[in-house]
Every structure is written in C-alpha cells, then in structure tokens.
Amino acid sequence: MLTSTHAFSGLGVDDLDAAKQFYGGKLGLTIDENPAGLTLRLPGGTLFVYQSPSFTPAGYTVLNFEVEDIDVAAAELAAAGIELERYEGMPHSHNGVVRGREAGQGPDIGWFRDPSGNILSILQG
C-alpha cells in the first residue's frame, strides 16, 4: 500500500528560528523554508522540522549522522560551540566520544542536543 510513496520524518522544536540557525548555521545543512516549517536536506532524504505548541524534547536519539572520522566531527562540532553530552556511567574519551568499537560494543558515538533539547548523534561504525 505505501511502498511506492515518498516518506520522510518530522521533528518538533520549540523555536523554529533557533532550529534554523542551529541546523543551517552551525551544522551547515541545506534548509528549505516553507510556511509550515523547515525541510532539512540530508544525504539520505529529508527531515521536516516544525514548531510544536506542545513541544517536549525527545528523551532518545532522534537523528544520527554517520561520519568517516568521529574525532574530526567532534572537533568540528566543538568549533561550532556544540558540546557533546557526557552521560554518567559511560566511558568518554577526552572529546566526549564513547569508544564502542574498541570494546566490541557498537560504534564510536557522541551525542549532542539541538537548541530545543532533542538528542542527535555523530557515530562511526
């Protein structure tokens, strides 16, 4: 039934202008504006970002960015003023990256938040 339609995800925020500055300005993503919100152009498709009157940030990772070199990506985020989250009980390296590959426990990953508090990640498998 839905196998031949175009699909995309949506992400709520509490401040559309702050989201535009963050995703376009700090992360460098291409953004298309429309009356209902923002469309982020991602390598694998699009993400619709809209202002939600009853917004609550997601308590889980809503968007993952696969990167070739996680240390370079972490440094680029830091240069843009974006700090990686440091979750208690997780072994972080000096730049906030959790080294899952060394431990045989998944990818190397670092989490960060958008201005609305949604959790995003950079990861290297």
UniProtKB/TrEMBL annotation:
The lineage of its organism: Bacteria, Bacillati, Actinomycetota, Actinomycetes, Micrococcales. InterPro entries: Glyas_Bleomycin-R_OHBP_Dase, Glyas_Fos-R_dOase_dom, VOC_core. Residues 4-125 form the VOC domain. Coiled coil: none annotated. CDD domains: VOC. This is VOC family protein. It comes from the Bacteria.
